[in-house]
Amino acid sequence: MPRLTLALILPLMLSGPAPSRAQETLQRQELYTENIAGMRLHLRQVRGAAGEGRAILLLHGARVAGVGSFDLPVAGGSFAADLAQRGFDVYLLDVRGYGDSARPVQLEQAPSAHAPLVRSNEAVQDIGAAVEFIRQRRKGQRVALFGWATGGQWAGHYASLHPDRLSALIVLNSLYRGSTPHALIGKGSRMEHPAQPGRFNPGACGAYRLNEAASLARPWDDAIPEADKSVRRDPQVAQAYAQAALASDPGSGARAPASFRSPCGAFEDSFYLATGRQQWDASLITAPTLIVAGERDFWSRPEDVQNLAADLVHAGKVQVLRIPDASHFIHLERPQFGRAQLLDAIDAFVR
């Protein structure tokens, strides 16, 4: 078991626009524990002032860390705050190599010098340390686990290994298993090795990748069908998302243009999932599971959703929610484009 310690609790200090009046009643703390390798892990807790609610751990995706993904300091930008307002005790985890968690030493070296960093087995170790840390604070209670995109893949993997520690599993816009062509990351994409079909191309990413703010905007812009992107996406949320992503890497400002590092292990894992390889078995999951996918999502495929639901033979309760007209970034867009429906579904499912 990982050694669990509470290294530091700090009051939240946010830059940028002031939070809304509703969010002012929330409490935020910066918490730290260690994974099994002795690396420091960062969690942010967001909770209401009334006391303990339903515990839920939110897992980020392949590039942007926990705070940037779920707790932006602008109106409509904090999925964590919205959950806390509904009575959840919310935790955000930075997996190793992301945000304020410890970074592998290879992240300080050239991307070409090493294989892709932070594969799913290491991410699952970090999730395990975070879950046990939360359970220790809450007298052994079970924890709900929510994962977005790659975070959902990690969450499902963890749930297959430790189902007894979870009250619920929620997977949003995630891969699982399927042979349907995946243009972004599957066979024939730049992620496939040009000389070895079916194998991941390490040259496409390296140990880690450098991400500029524009690289975050492009896929989000492409996911919005309207010419005026502000119809679905508040410009302040988009700006705060990019700022938080850059701020998550202390060295981002030293590069021109500014960029943040993200480990590439998530992309190798996703490549194999997208090409039909199964990394974990959902039949081992016993926690009630909610599978959510946006109709316009570019990451998960209908086949991933169908196969995951079919394999959840021991989950007790399985619910599949396909949100019409919703994109990959449901939780960061305006309420009427799926965000409100997603919050309602989680609130009703996690009891």
From TrEMBL:
GO cellular component terms listed in the entry, alphabetical order: membrane
Keywords tagged on the record: Signal
Annotated ranges, domain AB hydrolase-1: 55-335
Signal peptide: 1-22
GO molecular function, one term: catalytic activity
InterPro entries (UniProt xref): AB_hydrolase_1, AB_hydrolase_fold, AB_hydrolase_sf, Epox_hydrolase-like
Pfam families noted in UniProt: Abhydrolase_1
Record's protein name: Pimeloyl-ACP methyl ester carboxylesterase
